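Input set for joint prediction.
Command: fold jointly, output tokens.
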Amino acid sequence: MSKAQKVLIAGAWRDSDASGTFEPNNPSTREPTGELYPVSSLDEATEAVEAAAVASEQLQAFYPDGVANFLETFADRIEARADELVAMANTESGLPAPTRLAAIELPRTTGQLRQAAAAARGRTWSLPTIDTASNIRSMYSAIEGGVAVFGPNNFPFAFNSVAGGDFAAALGAGCPVIGKANSSHPGTSRLLAEEALEALKATGLPLATVQLIYRTSHDVGEKLVSDPKIGATGYTGSRAAGLALKAAADVAGKPIYLELSSINPVYILPGALAERSEAIADEFGTSCLMGTGQFCTNPGIVVLQKGPSTDEFMGQVKERFDAAPVGTLLAEGVESGMSRSVATLQQAGAELLTGGSAGAGTGFSYSNTLLTVSGAQFLQDPESLQTEAFGNESLFIVVDDLDQGCEVARHFEGNLTGCVYTDSGGSDDGAYDRIAPLLRRKVGRLLNDKMPTGVAVVPSMNHGGPYPATGHPGFTAVGIPASMLRFGMLACYDNVRDDRLPVELRDVNPGGVARLVDGGWSTGDVSV
Amino acid sequence: MSKAQKVLIAGAWRDSDASGTFEPNNPSTREPTGELYPVSSLDEATEAVEAAAVASEQLQAFYPDGVANFLETFADRIEARADELVAMANTESGLPAPTRLAAIELPRTTGQLRQAAAAARGRTWSLPTIDTASNIRSMYSAIEGGVAVFGPNNFPFAFNSVAGGDFAAALGAGCPVIGKANSSHPGTSRLLAEEALEALKATGLPLATVQLIYRTSHDVGEKLVSDPKIGATGYTGSRAAGLALKAAADVAGKPIYLELSSINPVYILPGALAERSEAIADEFGTSCLMGTGQFCTNPGIVVLQKGPSTDEFMGQVKERFDAAPVGTLLAEGVESGMSRSVATLQQAGAELLTGGSAGAGTGFSYSNTLLTVSGAQFLQDPESLQTEAFGNESLFIVVDDLDQGCEVARHFEGNLTGCVYTDSGGSDDGAYDRIAPLLRRKVGRLLNDKMPTGVAVVPSMNHGGPYPATGHPGFTAVGIPASMLRFGMLACYDNVRDDRLPVELRDVNPGGVARLVDGGWSTGDVSV
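tokens >
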């Protein structure tokens, strides 16, 4: 067996004080990738937290320009090493190298890093607020301590713990990051962290600003997020693991931002089906099977009203599911999770329309799967029937009428997204007006006539939603500058002398930062 | 014994399904006020939560104009009944009727209600964000469900559970409130709720928009904040009770905003003492003894550098403490809490400079108290020596030098405020530059040359801070519109037809609401 890879702690790559090792698999072959990774001990995690706390104090002197330079240099370095990164991520994730990893995910990742740099420099995230009569001024600025980032399996670049959305948001706010790599792509994380360290050196930042470990025991993970010296945690992944971390962080009073499971209900109203059933079946099939369904915003439930059009629509979707190739899943655990979830749904009364078998494609895989259940049955066991099957699966809920459709909406848990499809002629408008207000407060993002899987990285995006989709309905994991607020504290200055204020709160405003001055937005100077 | 007062549930005053009763005291006489109040059962609390959930769904149709009308009508009605309210609050709290309750606190309370109405109408809190290329739009809007508000004992009006800051913020965001009165002023809360109900009737809002109970067991309180149908909780009060509620809410994934204890450290640097020792002693004495020290932002720790000026300053403060009248405390529990805390501080090594005896004034009271401890001793037991003595008490920490002063700052828990006094000539500037960055991230509000007790109700105020001062460093309990964000969710609209959007997100913007459009603030229309 080869030697375990090194961890990045306090600015240096070094052998891990490992409490064990693990081997990642290539999901396309079901075979180990040939690399060995360490499981970090509590001592090692604690050392990282302490180094991050020191870096957190030091980093204030480099904010925003030094931090922004680092983020941009890091983005450049990622692009310079793109081929190697894409090859490694493809080996570890099974995701298509050219169409997904190289063409979409890598540019998104470097784009996020550059957006965070721009938001730091332009101070667009800090919401400076000034009241001249009382001479009180406030803004958001970095919390104290490092941010632990636990990345998910499904985006080896864009949500990577040392390069993805949470990383960019934390760094952009001025916080060091301790990355806990997702165990399914430790090699990709390692290559990214190598570039991060070189970028830190090139830009003169504290070297403990980015650290990387690969795996911990549950116990060590819980101690990490609740350490007195940690600042906050960003977590994207399974509900069970996330809630265990949340419980530990909550007791310690440490902010933790979770992006957990979501089934993303889609209502397709009768007029829409009558108008464009085939087109919607196309959209749905593409959205649900893209990336083998392994998106947080995958449409896992479709609510339809009983009738011939619905039967026809379900048939059209079934055709597409049967005809589509069966994609590769990210890991063995995803495959077994699909089997477990589909069994749970069936036990709760859902019937299999198609699919339902593991290992139907190349490598880790599960056949493209559709289930169906009546609205009445859903209302008898809404909890079981909202079990997430993370992958290429969806459940049709066929309701008797609009009233039952509304009642189903009232029983949804918090979700990242919810969609309503209506016709263009207006026949669905009355139903929309009843469904939408109910769905609105169950979801972070409400869509019209559009599937939920595209998550644009724009300021207005909300990749968040009510519990248990996330831990708090006021925050988003995607979209800069809003996602940076998770790693800021509200910092108020009362009667503080002008030359001691952060530049964005001083009387003169040469950068033209937008500020809420005496209740109105202004980009000008303040006269006192 | 008289009959227990009625609770306000689901729009009607009615006899409580009480599991017990309690009698509030008049703190000035140590005698019961003569009124009897019920302890609400779990059934009653649950009924309130369910009525609030229904009101929460209904209230959306009345937002913002109906809600704003209600808040303004309620404020008018409070003013019309001011004499009776002030008399009741004086009886229940012992706070001075004309100088404090009538002149300061009641106008602040009605001002907050009117500010919340204006923020709702003007949509200044919702941060509308629009990206035209992707047609994604987002804003903050009301969370689903009612907000439970637990008010503190020290502001019978301005933080009252059915009229104070949390109430105004929740209503302003569009959420119904379930008030849990502070047990030391149930009568004041009852009179306020009477006016709230009349204001709801006058403005046609759902009558369950404001409900009131007076006390629950700990167990029922924990069930209330974690009920699946509650939206969120605002709590101001003791750390122990707050953390028990937080634990329950956290497990249920329900947001809870806590404003807990804070000792509000004040650094007085040597140059400042040399320049204006007497003036600072005056400021400190006034700040620490005002309201018998019963403010969340009372300066409970003063850090001074060893030397003759510091000895002299401590003597000057002692003179003022000895000469000042001993005020009345809000409740028997505050008096016994002072005794307990002072004993804890003494056991940890603090020495009594003056005071230290219970019952030294009229009614519930404790002598004006000063303690002192060395920096070295503080660093040996920083936890015990940060015990809050809620009332007319403060602890001097006398440090050897600047390095020790910095080390003390590193050991502070999260606080609402931190102050640094420096001289005007610049001799303290080097020390300031070392202390301030450390203190900055331990506190929500950093002050220069000013005591922390004034909390202006302005947009830039932060009455919040890192744990354990509050439960999350990103939120403030005072200051509109920011305090309203606690009761909002981030609501994103993706490809939603223009006429289905909230007015603040539509293309045309006749109200001139400030919106972040394509990355820049604008008050104009959007052209797509």
